[in-house]
Amino acid sequence: MGAYAIFTIYVMIGVLHSIAFSVFVSRVTCATTTKTIISIFCNTGTGISHLVAVIGWPWYWLSQ
């Protein structure tokens, strides 16, 4: 598998995480989270938070 294909899959999974964050992260979660990526997602604009979720999703799972 080439680097382009790996990057494409990485970004596609990130987009799915961004959608999931948008749907499932509530205001209560935003107020009480200790997870950095969720905090950034909750406290930045839509465009930046989407980028954070797309690029940073592995760190969410690594911090579990």
Query: What percent of the residues sit in helical stretches (DSSP H or I)?
Result: over 70%
User: What fraction of residues sit in β-strands?
Assistant: under 5%
Structural class: mainly alpha
Biggest sheet layout: none
Radius of gyration: 12 Å
Spatial gap, N to C terminus: 28 Å
So what's the oligomer here? single chain
Let me know the average pLDDT: 81
DSSP strand tally: 0
Shape: elongated
Number of helices: 4
Low-confidence stretches: none
H/E topology pattern: HHHH
Write up this protein:
The chain has 64 residues and is mostly helical. The protein has four helices and no strands. It has helices at residues 3-24, 27-32, 36-43, 46-62. It is elongated, with a radius of gyration of 12 Å. The N and C termini lie far apart (28 Å). The model has no long low-confidence stretch (mean pLDDT 81).
